[in-house]
Automatic annotation (TrEMBL), chains A, B:
In the N-terminal section; belongs to the acetate CoA ligase alpha subunit family. The keyword Cell division does not apply. This is Acetyltransferase. SUPFAM superfamilies: Glutathione synthetase ATP-binding domain-like, NAD(P)-binding Rossmann-fold domains, Succinyl-CoA synthetase domains. The keyword Ribosomal protein does not apply. Residues 493-539 form the ATP-grasp domain. It comes from Pseudodesulfovibrio indicus.
Amino acid sequence: MHPDAHLSELFSPASIAVVGASRSPIKLGHVLLSNLISGGYRGTIFPVNPAGGEILGLTAYPTAADLPRPPDLGIIVLPREQVLQAMRELADAHVDAVCVITAGFRETGRDGFELEMEMAELARRRNITLLGPNTLGLINTGIDLNATIAQAMPAKGSISFFSQSGALCAAILDWADGESIGFSKFISLGNKAGVSEADVLEALGDDPDTKVIIGYLESVEDGRKFQSRARLVTEKKPVIMIKAGTTPAGARATSSHTGAMAGNVEAATAAFKQAGIIRVESLEELFDLARAFAAQPLPEGPNLTVVTNSGGPGILAADACEDAGLNLARPSLATLEKLTEALPPFASIYNPIDIIGDAKAERYRATLEAVAEDELTHAILVLLTPTASAEIVETAQAVIDVAKTCAKPIFASFMGDERIGPGRDMLLKAGIPCYGYPEPAVRAISAMLAHYRWKNRPYPVEVCFRRDKGRAERTIENALNIGLTELPFADAMDIAAAYELPVPETRLVRTSEQAVRAAKKMGYPVALKIESPHLSSRGEVDGVALDLHTPREVRDAWLAITARAQRKRPDIYIAGCLVQTMGPVKAREVVIRFTRDPQFGPLISFCMAGPSAEVLGDVSYRLAPLALHDVQDIVREIRSFPLLRGVRGGEPVNLTAIEDILLSMSQMADDFPEIREAELNPILVDAEGAFVTDMRITVGPI
Amino acid sequence: MHPDAHLSELFSPASIAVVGASRSPIKLGHVLLSNLISGGYRGTIFPVNPAGGEILGLTAYPTAADLPRPPDLGIIVLPREQVLQAMRELADAHVDAVCVITAGFRETGRDGFELEMEMAELARRRNITLLGPNTLGLINTGIDLNATIAQAMPAKGSISFFSQSGALCAAILDWADGESIGFSKFISLGNKAGVSEADVLEALGDDPDTKVIIGYLESVEDGRKFQSRARLVTEKKPVIMIKAGTTPAGARATSSHTGAMAGNVEAATAAFKQAGIIRVESLEELFDLARAFAAQPLPEGPNLTVVTNSGGPGILAADACEDAGLNLARPSLATLEKLTEALPPFASIYNPIDIIGDAKAERYRATLEAVAEDELTHAILVLLTPTASAEIVETAQAVIDVAKTCAKPIFASFMGDERIGPGRDMLLKAGIPCYGYPEPAVRAISAMLAHYRWKNRPYPVEVCFRRDKGRAERTIENALNIGLTELPFADAMDIAAAYELPVPETRLVRTSEQAVRAAKKMGYPVALKIESPHLSSRGEVDGVALDLHTPREVRDAWLAITARAQRKRPDIYIAGCLVQTMGPVKAREVVIRFTRDPQFGPLISFCMAGPSAEVLGDVSYRLAPLALHDVQDIVREIRSFPLLRGVRGGEPVNLTAIEDILLSMSQMADDFPEIREAELNPILVDAEGAFVTDMRITVGPI
């Protein structure tokens, strides 16, 4: 990391004070100092210990005040009660950054929480970068800095890792050791009293030694900040993350672990997506992807060519491709000719290219050379099973040789263990990701393609619609002034009209004759809906009649609706009925909502109307403000999208009309923080356009 | 395997002739013979080679006719052209079984296919058990038999593996070598000209040395036979399988690999499910589960208790539990008391039990001993990350010690590689499945619970409903006699009535006055539906009016419907309209269909009505005949089931009414092979009962 980059005081200190350095090998203060020394750190180390003297060959100072010069970084490894005092002394000694290894703060209850708040406040006041408390520490292999209480020091490499779980860092350091995978920075976030995941992400984004960022999070401190910083970082390099605590059981475990409330899962998911973060579901996938991104270029399209010496794994790869949205494209004619020449007659030259069980290394080499030049192929996957004829090491060498001259990403799956081991190790050392099974290789390629598409997506277009903000403002103010939280229907529709949403013409009438006159003026057909401030849903009294074509139908409906309402709810005040122009009759129905997430802000959702979408969880989410591609994505992302595009010869609906409403809602969320929630349900949509028939708005003081 | 068990001539031959045994070490005939010898096979081996003499120290015979006595098993490793002749000679020598290693048959095209058919016919005629062609061979570790062309011989153990892909066998043999996992039998099915997967499954089911069966299949030879045999085997032991070629891309790859047509995916999935086979999606999962089933008892309930020395992995395990349908139940009060005593104050004694990063082996031991006795816990998962304080080997020993006296299944995930390696190896050797991450451990436990529930499911209840088979038979015969394939509506409804399905009363009328009279007789409300032999769908002419309450509404509807039909389709004959009693008005709508799968027989499906179910793939399938638990499962399996159970205070529908219709359809499928397809769409269902409003039946000669 450049000295002037963010957090350089943490990652690249010229000098470090270890407060709590100890002579006793079982104490963490000893472990940390010893790790610093044995890691080969070349800066100055100042052990601080009240007894002074010498520790591990270094002069120890009784207090931070005794240090010969201000250290860049102070690391505190003391009992909880002594931490604040030590931090004050470091502040007085003009330290730039402090890392508190000590645990026992927020995660243990109220006392710890208050101590942690004091610590954070002190850091803010004295302008100190604070990492922790309750952190395992950090590593920067670039300057041989191992400032952790973990034992292992990973090999140098281009992956950086940050984690909210210290123990996970320890596991990964151990794992990295055995897998010839190299790291640049390692940072255990601890309780995040100072440095947050957003800060670290930004720093790693600017770090020239970091090519791939991987992270483990349980909670996000400031959702908006995290999202906006992450979006900038993912333009430059892949960010792969696992978010734990996404299920109810996981969320309960999280809150008992960190004392943090897990946020709204949908909001977090949308934030990750809109920031271009690659989200994975398991640790295994996290490392599978890290390895792939670190070693290979991104595929520039979805066409994967599979070369295999056995049919079965080829089929499994084909299944995995279909699931992951990759194509097994047929090679070009030129390539097919080369393959026909190079391969025996029983080989399958289409894709998967099955070069058969008796294939030796040279057959792999010839095939790979042909495929490397195939202009229709975007990525290559080499499968090998250890058949009697297989030349494992020689085949690995052939893959490595071809990869050297090939701009396309190449991946391998050598299946087995003992026999294929030497070949696998060669591949890994040469930067060819090699997996034990075809499926994870295919998933990695698919994730890389998604990242390629993210980086090459069109520049986000922000749209600003005309609207009468003053009119909406007056309506909302009025409601707030009289203490309303839920706007009356008419007011909500008025705001909709102010945003030029396609709403029906609506009039409140008090008699059936007024209804007939209103209908005549608007033009038939009309709808009639009971109106009462005491009804939360008209369905409760069956208070809606649709598609009324004649005065007589309107009168009949009036009678039926009002009589039913009086019978079913004799206790309520009935203001009359609304007469409305009818929307399209054979329309499909969709719903747009927004709510405000405490961490991530306004969350807009889209789904088909009806209980089915909810039961099946077929709802898509995005955080506002929405750009043009966001609204296009949110509409297409629901699994029911074919119903809008038209199935079995059905006409496609006017998607632009829906997208326009989504953009307006995004704007409304931005214009009026007073609007807490809004729901358009249902919106009728057909080939012509969309039609908002009902809107609910909940408001509250800011 | 017992000598009298199935396929003992293959798995436990007393003598083996290797036809094509060769002196040249690069020939497969040499490799196979050499593997047989070095594997330590204790029976008699007869090399057969035209040159005679001695091969690898054994006397070779010029032809099978020269053998001193009939071999139990003949293995053919010859060029394709010589295979049939060799098989004839073996038959004349009274061989019991033949295994054909040679490839180049069905998988290579028509010539090969015909040769293979000849071979199969010869085996049938001469009563020879035929394995292959195109097989890697087979292994029986119990008698040190390695009759394969693969190099490795796995350790002895209780897992048996069969595979349609020979190369996969090779990969797995290599993999097993490195993972201290033991096998009993290994069989490469090859082209399945003789022995099929059903035969092998049955044999392994009866094999006392096999505790867990795992398999890889691309196609199934005889679906019905496979399903019925598998069902018996899974009563005794777990069968874990991966079925490749389940996506369109995978199916294309399969057919180019084996020449076999991949069957209907839904039918195969239903067959696996109804046979109690544990289906996995990846090779990794196949082995993860095999290891778990081989080593641990089944959990007898869903309550998993997680013990961890770090919060993060605990949360990941909790997320995985939620996804897999397991509970993280709170331990009993007695256990909580023990834990409070044994653990430091910052530990979390609830589940996941977080014994914190400084935990040494003794803290693990005390916790595990308490959990082992906890009466609410059904299974235990021990997580360890290599923190500075972790005692890895000692913790592994504690787990092993507790497991010895604990009847509950215990699993571990030691995370990392180098440092945790010795602990992991100890656990694996001691039969404690140890995974690199928490997620696969949780998935394995969940699969074991599913198998436990399968084995303890209620005895299947077969239901036979009263029906008027003769009446249905006459209707179908009439239709077939006049060459119909799709039955007229009235006939289909007649068959429905013969099966006592809840159908509306229906009359065909020719004038509006007849319609009014019919309606009066049936009782209002009624429905009116256009009837014409030339319409495939009434929707085409908008030819349905529902919920008619008065003579006037019936007359208006008559006029509207017939006029529309004449205007839109002036070319067709209109027979009149059907008057029908109306079903429930506010009902939910479901669909029941059956089709016939060429491999697995009648396939019954169930879904909600409307395009949504189809688009979202929310359809459940079962193969007929259906038992009582099948129809209960098929209804509850759709993701939309909450819509039937009632959401947001909605009333639950009468599920028994739907189940009865499913049982009747199953019976109809069984009674009349002439019925090729049938569809009840929609069936109206409410809290009272179900009501079949439309039925389509397609028939054809048997």
